[in-house]
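Study this fold:
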Amino acid sequence: MRKFLFALLPVLVLAACGGGSNHPLAGNWSQDTGSEAKGMSLEFDSTGTKVVVHTAPRADGGHDHPKASFTFDAATKALVVKCELLGAGKPDTWTGTLGTGQFELKGGDTVLKFRSGGKPAGH
């Protein structure tokens, strides 16, 4: 019985830790600004609809966290983010399609590009 419990222990530890997420949006997504400038980053809640937004760093080094939510259709890879990503008066609905390790979000005439990985903006 003791050997069985020791063999079962690694399985229980992995189960308790969640074993990772298979959600295609899991993890940090960093904005590709096309330059050395740091952009915003998005962290998707793989179990719900919340997005943690870290806006691009300000001159003083700080950044904001506007309230955001998302929907994702796994079959079509369609992504919709509801947030004023660029501030008040700018688009608050952004749409795109998830590609391999990247996606673009379009809001009005503006396109924001994101790549999987990196650290959240301002961290």
Notes: The mean pLDDT is 85.
